[in-house]
Amino acid sequence: MSSQIVQYVLLRSDLLKDLGWSIGALVAQACHASTAVLHLYREDEDTMKYLDDLDNMHKVVLEVPNEDSLKKVAEKLKENSIDHKLWIEQPENIPTCLALKPYPKDQVKKYVGKFKLYKATLSSHSTVLS
């Protein structure tokens, strides 16, 4: 039995915590990377299965601490032929996010398992999310 198909998205936490990017800008980075990788691998069997059941897509957003960590993950994925898209925000030319194409969870968990779920703290923001 094959494991659940999941899409992992790795987002730099320093963009919010240290560089002052807005939460909206971070969400946009994750959306860009996710959309781009789905388009690039749109003919892949797992991607097609993932998109065939839109109401049950499973996406996991993980936190990487900084640009160097993000680049290291991208290199490790490349070395192991794991399809992904490293999103580089333009015109700033800043790597911000990385999205794997949808994969059965058991095939890629070992590459991303050390990262925690992304948690944005809103303590300095007066906005209440409901």
What does this 3D model show about the protein?
The protein is an alpha+beta fold and 130 residues long. The protein has one domain: Bit1. 39% of the residues lie in helices and 24% in strands. It is built from five helices and six strands, in the order E-H-H-H-E-H-E-E-E-H-E. Strands 1, 2, 3, 4, 5 and 6 form a six-stranded mixed β-sheet that branches. A hairpin with a 4-residue loop joins strand 3 and strand 4. The radius of gyration is 15 Å and the shape is globular. The protein starts with a strand and ends in a 13-residue tail after the last strand. The C terminus is likely disordered.
Summarize the structure.
With 130 residues, the chain is α+β, with helices and mostly antiparallel strands. 39% of the residues lie in helices and 24% in strands. It has a single domain (5-117), classed as Bit1, CATH 3.40.1490.10.
Fill in the keyword field for this structure.
130 residues, alpha+beta, Bit1, 6-stranded mixed beta sheet
Which geometry do the CA atoms define? Answer: globular
Q: Into which percent range does the helicity of residues fall?
A: 25-40%
CATH topology: Bit1
Following the backbone from N to C, one meets helices and strands in this order, namely EHHHEHEEEHE
Give the termini distance in whole angstroms: 38 Å
| Approximate strand percentage | 15-25%
Largest sheet: 6 strands, mixed
CATH architecture: 3-Layer(aba) Sandwich
Number of strands: 6
Q: In angstroms, what is the radius of gyration?
A: 15 Å
Low-confidence stretches: 124-130
| Number of helical segments with 4 or more residues | 5
CATH superfamily: Bit1
Sheet/helix structural class: alpha+beta
Please give the domain count.
Answer: 1
Q: Mean pLDDT, as a whole number?
A: 91
Please identify the top-level CATH class: Alpha Beta
